[in-house]
Amino acid sequence: MHKRLLGAKVLAAVAVLALVGAGTAYGTGAFRSAKVTKVAFASPAKQSDYGWNQQGYNAAKAAASASGASFQAVTNIGYDKTDVVLRQLAQGGAKFIIAHASGYDTVATRIARQYKVPVMTYDVATNLTKGLVSYITTSSQQAAYLAGVLAARTTKTHKVGIIISASDSNWYKMSGGFAAGFRSVDKSSKIFFATVSPTGYDDAAGGKRVANSVIAQGADVIFAMGDNASFGYLQAIETAKPGHKVWFIGDIGNMTPIDKKHVFLSSVLWDFTATYKQAIKDINAGTYGTHGYDLNLKNNGVALLHTRYIPAKVWGQITAARAKILSGAIKVPAASKAGEVNKLIK
């Protein structure tokens, strides 16, 4: 997802030309007015990935519209040209830049301080500079717990799978939350835990290969986290012929529009819209950079997608579990390593 640093894509020439044409009216270190009149968004991959990049793009566009600001997006830029892109966005009049990848944090922070433009970064809970820099973290394990409850109520083979595309802290959090939710219902069924590779975020072929392996071991519900690896998971599940139905629970975005074989059971959704809106309000109020933002169940930053394939009775159980998490009756663990996930699985 957003932590990718290896195998970065080259910046599209069209995007560079568009940015250069934006002008350099603001000199280095120029002070910007507090009012957000233009929101800029930069992401490492295309906004059509049904995941991290699409969710961020859609949310940023919606937040800009809601605040009456104009919107400029540069997507699919990889990591090689981050400095160039963010610098040109700052020089082009952006009053708020969403640098949509934790791999952009260092450069984005430097650009914010140099050009006095507020930026949004990710995951590092100490990255605060008043008026200029803040961050987003997620409590995605909370919604993943609900996905675990769903899987436990859905499996018929009593074997399910967790697949992560890379060694990513957010994937571990969601894997652990899923395992905890599953075990709250089912103490004995088998949970397979597999990784595509240390940095396999975009490895669709690897995602398909690993998903096929997990399906071959009997799993009939697979909770899989990717980026573009998710397309490989979906393809494997769509073409599987193990003699029983295999369901896919995805992450971050909603792949229902491309679910032609009716295997997409649900997804742990991440929604940045309310957070971006609040960030704009904070910038305008002069309080930005004094605190961070977290996506969680309470603020609907994370949620479990309700599809037509989930029976009403099961959704009622999921809703009850959600209420207990919100009340504090259920404490969802936040795993940070593979070993912690394995402990929760067992």
Describe the protein's architecture and organization.
With 346 residues, the chain is of the alpha/beta class. The chain contains 11 helices and 12 strands. The strands form 2 sheets. Strands 2-1-3-4-5-11 form a 6-stranded parallel beta sheet, sandwiched between helices. Helix 6 links the parallel strand 6 and strand 7. It is globular, with a radius of gyration of 20 Å. Mean pLDDT is 92; it is low at 4-33.
In short:
It contains eleven helices and twelve strands. It is of the alpha/beta class.
Chain-wise SSE layout:
Layout: H1 13-20, E1 38-42, H2 52-67, E2 70-74, H3 82-91, E3 96-99, H4 105-115, E4 119-122, E5 133-138, H5 141-154, E6 159-164, H6 169-185, E7 190-195, H7 204-216, E8 221-225, H8 229-239, E9 247-252, E10 264-270, H9 273-285, E11 293-295, E12 302-304, H10 312-327, H11 338-345
Parallel strand pairs: 1-2, 1-3, 3-4, 4-5, 5-11, 6-7, 6-8, 8-9, 9-10
Antiparallel strand pairs: 10-12
